[in-house]
Amino acid sequence: MNHLLTLKEFDKDTLFSIIRKAIEIKNKPEQYYHACERKGLLMLFQKTSTRTNLSFQSGIQQMGGYAVPMDWNSSNFSISPIQYEVRYASRNCDVIMARLTNHSDLLELAKYSDVPVINGCCDQYHPCQALADLMTIYETKGTFSDVTLTYVGIHNNVVNSLIAGCMTAGLRLQLVTPIINDASWDEELMQTAYRSGSILNVESLSEALLRTDFVYTDTWVDMEYFHADHYQDEKNRRIQLMMPFQINKESLGGCTPFIMHDMPVHPGFEIEEELIESDQSIIYQQAENRMHVQKSLLLYLLEHQGEE
């Protein structure tokens, strides 16, 4: 069974085909109005969501299918072993998208599901976001050849899927990540990344910006902790350490890379508010592309359902 749990699952040809199909769907949506006729998408949520929820529901419904959102904690997934619940659930849908806290739960879902499982975000990976990021870069530059992306922020789940995707697509990726989320660290992935020669750690933001086409930042505090009382000391520590790495006019130093952010944005923290709406920003294009590339992903998984 084909699943998307990390973005390590796709080879270069598959990744390119999904991205190119996504651009085609974006430009000619009417040709895909019946592509998922009567196909059902179960959407399981432990984590809050704007883009994942809206883009998947809109995407499959625009292609003639339907979505069933389900809150994990209000369902029996919260009180029964995953293997039993997903065996039942997968008999009532054609694809499952799960936005969960722990990657281990995604692996359990995929192991026992009779339909493809898509990771809509977990503590280790966010492959749908990375797919949209790669689509946006390809759409902007028309190629991945001789393109450099710089990620500035916390080493988190998005970074892991970006690393996997960039290695496959052939992009250079510079990481300016003073803080690592321990739950996100994947030692095997990082060893592979460093051996590839295309993934580089850079300590200096100014140095990285001199040789980049895109600069990408993300929240310094995971959304579920942003207003949590018990997390305020860690939040303040992160802000103090990361403020010198804020993307702003001064830190850009005259460089003019395209600016990316996976949202939700916290202006005045990881990015200066003025840059969000600047001519260099492709943030909203990047966010919109979540729906288009997920349409393409759904079509790919449905077409290859049952294959190993």
TrEMBL record:
Reversibly catalyzes the transfer of the carbamoyl group from carbamoyl phosphate (CP) to the N(epsilon) atom of ornithine (ORN) to produce L-citrulline. Transmembrane segments: none annotated. It holds the Pfam family OTCace_N. Belongs to the aspartate/ornithine carbamoyltransferase superfamily. Signal peptide: none annotated. This is Ornithine carbamoyltransferase. Keywords: Transferase. PANTHER family: ORNITHINE CARBAMOYLTRANSFERASE, MITOCHONDRIAL (PTHR45753), ORNITHINE TRANSCARBAMYLASE, MITOCHONDRIAL (PTHR45753:SF3). The keyword Transferase applies. PROSITE patterns: CARBAMOYLTRANSFERASE (PS00097). SUPFAM superfamilies: Aspartate/ornithine carbamoyltransferase. It comes from Paenibacillus mendelii. Residues 146-301 form the Aspartate/ornithine carbamoyltransferase Asp/Orn-binding domain. Residues 3-139 form the Aspartate/ornithine carbamoyltransferase carbamoyl-P binding domain.
